[in-house]
Amino acid sequence: MKLNSVGIQEGYHWIRQGFWLFKQNPIAFLMLVFIYVLVAQLAILIPIIGVITVLVLTPTLSVGFMTACRQAIQKERIIPQVYFCALRSTPLIRKRILQLGLLYAIMIFGLSLILGLFINVQAIIPLISNDQAITPEAIHQLYWALLIGGLLYFPIAVLMWFSPVLIAWENMSIPQALFSSWIACWKNRGAFLYYILIWAAILVAIPLLVGASLDTVNLGQAASFIIAPISMGGLTIMHCSFYASWKGCFIADEATVLGD
């Protein structure tokens, strides 16, 4: 395996390849994402412990989904247990992947503490509570939180983008995997920026446009029934495109060709 350098347009091709990969087994991929979203929502209901568990298992689940992408290409059957393939690997990989998850949880909690210094949490409460009026201050604080949170999460995302699979598939140590992930993302920053901008348009701009359009014809109540499937499908395809970015940035010894 070696690190590859790609052009800016490759970010668009990763998304096209994600669509192609999704079409190989759409039911299985939607099932995996639905299970993750459902379990995450249920876990969050358990104070502190639930959130920590989801964060610690995030690298494990990432390896599982990437493995499912491999299985789809090879026309193998995909089952939910694929999520835990990293934990069923060697004791060393299992230890490293859980340690990486613990590190990820620590970074996210650290980000939350820093974010709390910049935003007024009390002002955002009306946006998540139906019994309070939404104020301009609440909307301002929400956008401010999204901006600051995105900037703070960026270095975490870069470190974690490839590190789970580098540990599970390439048997790297945690420092090696984090460093390699950072270098791969930085070396191909143009492609990643293009990739992120396209997904931002798909997952944020399009649902907002659909919702606003329905509001103008007094069909706002039906928005959730239309936007939810679009968002779920987009989220699933985005996860499939992660595998395409992996193949684009790291050339494995065994060639795997993705459709376009």
UniProtKB/TrEMBL annotation:
It comes from Polynucleobacter paneuropaeus. The lineage of its organism: Bacteria, Pseudomonadati, Pseudomonadota, Betaproteobacteria, Burkholderiales. Keywords: Membrane, Transmembrane, Transmembrane helix. NCBIfam families: BPSS1780_fam (NF041043). The chain crosses the membrane at residues 27-57, 102-125, 145-169, 190-210, 222-244. This is DUF2189 domain-containing protein.
